[in-house]
Design brief:
- By secondary structure, the chain is an all-alpha fold.
- The protein is built from 21 helices and no strands.
- The protein has two domains: 187 residues, no CATH class; 136 residues.
- The relative contact order is 0.05.
C-alpha cells in the first residue's frame, strides 16, 4: 500500500493530464476500489470475543489502522487527479462507509485516520459542489448548479451496501457496520429519511433485539432519532410503528434500569404516532396507551430497586398527562402505586416520594370528576406520609422535608377544590384530634387548610 501510494502520488497529479482519460478512469477506479477494500477484507475488525486475548485484538486493530491510513492517503491522492469527479461519483458510497465508522473514539482508529477521514469529507464536498456531508447523504436539487453531484443523495446506496451485513449471523461480528449505519442515519434530517424507511427499520430492529445492552441502547436512541425525523404517516405505513412499539414494549420486562430510562421516552414517542390523541375520551376500550401504562405502574409498584421505581414513577406522570381523562380507568391502581411508593424513604433527596406526589397531583387534576369518591383514601395516604416524615430514623435535610410538606399542602388544596363538602367534614374530624408534640406541624397544616378559603 505504501509503495503504491508513493508511486502514484506524483505520477497521477503531474502526468494525469497527458494520459488517455477513459483508460485513466478505468484503471484508477480499479485501484481505488482495491485499496479501499484491502483493510477490512485482509484484516477485518471483529469483536474482541473472536480473539484468544485482548493483546491479539489490539494487534488486529493496529494492523487494520496501518492499512487504513495508506488506503485513505492513496484515495486522497486520486482526488487530485483529472478524473476526480468520476472517481467521487462512482465509489463515494464505499468511501463514506469506510470513513464514517472511523471518526469516533474506537479501538480501530487513531488521530491520523480521523484527520484523513475529515480531509476526505472536505474533498468530497468540494468536488461534488455540496455544502456538507449531510447534503451529500440526503441529496439536494439546484437546477442552476451544473456541477452538483448526488442530487438524489448517497444514503440509499449506502443502506443498500450495508444491508448485506445486517443479519443475525454477521452484524455483531463486524463491529464497524453498525457505526457506519448510525453515523449516516444521524447526519440526515427530515424530510429526507422518509423515502429510505424500508431500509432503515430492519437494522434498527436487529440492534434493539440484541442481547447486548450497548447494542440495544444504540438501537433505541437511533430509533428515537428516526421517529423525530420522519413523517408519522410513513411510520404507520406497513405497520412500521407497531413493530417498533412491540420491540420497545418487550423491554419493559427486563430488569435493566439504564434500558428502562432510555426506552420509555421512545415508547412515548411511538405511541403518539400510533394514537395521537390518547386523552380523547371516546370509549372504555383499552388502547396501547392503557396497556403500556398498566405495565409501567405495575413495574413502579413492584420494583425492588429504588432507581427503577423513580424511573417508572417519572414515566407515570408523563403518561397521565397524555391520557388525561382516560386515566380514570386506572385511578385505583394509580392510588395503590402512589401509596406504596410513599411508604418507603428514598435517601437524602427523596426523589421517589417527590415523583409519587407529582403523579398523585397529576392524576387528581386529570380525574377530578371521580375524586369525591376517594377523598378519605387520599387523606389517609397524605396523613400517613406526614407522620412518616417525623420518623426518628429518617435522615433528610430540613429543606427537603420543607419542600415535601409544601407539595403535600398543594395536593390537599387541590383535594379541597375537588370536593369541599367531604373534605371539610374529614378535616373537621382530623383537627379535633389531640396531637403529640412531635406532630403539631400536621395539626398546623390542617388548621391552615380549614381557616383559608379557596
Amino acid at each position: 500500500m505504501e509503495i503504491l501510494y508513493n508511486l502514484f502520488n506524483d505520477y497521477i497529479v503531474k502526468e494525469g493530464e497527458s494520459l488517455d482519460e477513459d483508460l485513466l478512469k478505468a484503471e484508477l477506479l480499479k485501484l481505488c476500489v482495491i485499496c479501499l477494500d484491502i483493510p477490512d477484507k485482509v484484516i477485518p475488525i471483529l469483536s474482541e470475543q473472536e480473539f484468544n486475548s485482548t493483546e491479539k485484538y489490539k494487534e488486529n486493530c493496529n494492523s487494520n489502522i496501518r492499512l487504513t491510513e495508506q488506503s485513505l492517503k492513496f484515495y486522497l491522492t486520486c482526488l487530485l487527479s483529472p478524473v476526480k469527479r468520476y472517481i467521487v461519483k462512482k465509489i463515494s458510497a464505499k468511501v463514506v462507509i469506510m470513513i464514517s465508522c472511523r471518526l469516533g473514539n474506537f479501538s480501530w482508529t487513531n488521530q491520523n485516520v480521523k484527520k484523513l477521514s475529515n480531509q476526505i469529507i472536505q474533498s468530497l464536498c468540494q468536488i461534488s459542489n455540496q455544502k456538507n456531508i449531510s447534503t451529500i447523504l440526503s441529496g439536494t436539487t439546484d437546477p442552476s448548479n451544473q456541477l452538483l453531484l448526488f442530487q438524489d443523495g448517497l444514503l440509499g446506496t449506502i443502506l443498500t451496501n450495508l444491508s448485506a451485513y445486517f443479519n443475525q449471523d454477521k452484524w455483531e461480528k463486524n463491529l464497524t457496520v453498525k457505526h457506519s449505519f448510525l453515523w449516516c442515519l444521524t447526519k440526515v434530517k427530515y424530510p429526507y429519511l422518509d423515502k429510505h424507511i424500508q431500509k432503515l427499520i430492519p437494522p434498527l430492529l436487529i440492534m434493539m433485539d440484541s442481547f447486548k445492552q450497548n447494542e440495544k441502547i444504540l438501537g433505541v436512541t437511533s430509533t428515537q432519532y428516526l421517529i423525530d425525523n420522519v413523517n408519522p404517516s410513513i411510520l404507520l405505513l406497513y405497520n412500521h410503528a407497531l413493530v417498533i412499539y412491540d420491540t420497545l414494549f418487550k423491554m419493559l420486562y427486563s430488569s435493566n434500569e439504564i434500558l428502562y430510562e432510555i426506552c420509555l421516552p421512545v415508547l412515548e414517542s411511538i405511541l403518539l404516532v400510533i394514537e395521537r390523541k390518547p386523552g380523547d375520551i371516546c370509549s372504555v376500550e383499552y388502547t396501547k396507551w392503557d396497556t403500556c401504562f398498566e405495565k409501567i405502574f405495575n413495574n413502579a409498584e413492584y420494583a425492588n430497586n429504588v432507581t427503577i421505581k423513580r424511573i417508572f414513577l417519572k414515566a407515570m406522570e408523563k403518561f397521565i398527562k397524555h391520557l388525561n381523562g382516560n386515566s380514570i380507568k386506572h385511578f385505583d391502581n394509580i392510588l395503590s402505586t402512589v401509596a406504596y411508593s410513599l411508604q418507603h424513604p428514598d435517601g437524602q433527596k427523596e426523589e421517589a416520594r417527590f415523583h409519587a406526589l407529582a403523579v398523585l397531583k397529576e392524576a387528581m387534576s386529570s380525574c377530578w370528576p371521580i375524586i369525591p369518591k376517594y377523598v378519605n383514601t387520599i387523606f389517609k395516604i397524605l396523613i400517613k406520609l406526614l407522620v412518616d416524615l417525623n420518623y426518628p430514623g429518617l435522615t433528610i435535610k430540613a429543606e427537603i422535608k420543607l419542600t415535601l410538606l409544601e407539595k403535600i399542602y398543594e395536593i390537599l388544596v387541590l383535594l379541597k377544590d375537588c370536593d369541599k363538602l367531604n373534605f371539610n367534614e374529614t378535616l373537621k374530624t382530623l383537627t379535633m384530634i389531640k396531637y403529640e408534640p412531635q406532630f403539631t406541624y400536621i395539626q398546623e397544616m390542617l388548621l391552615k387548610l380549614s381557616n383559608e378559603s379557596f
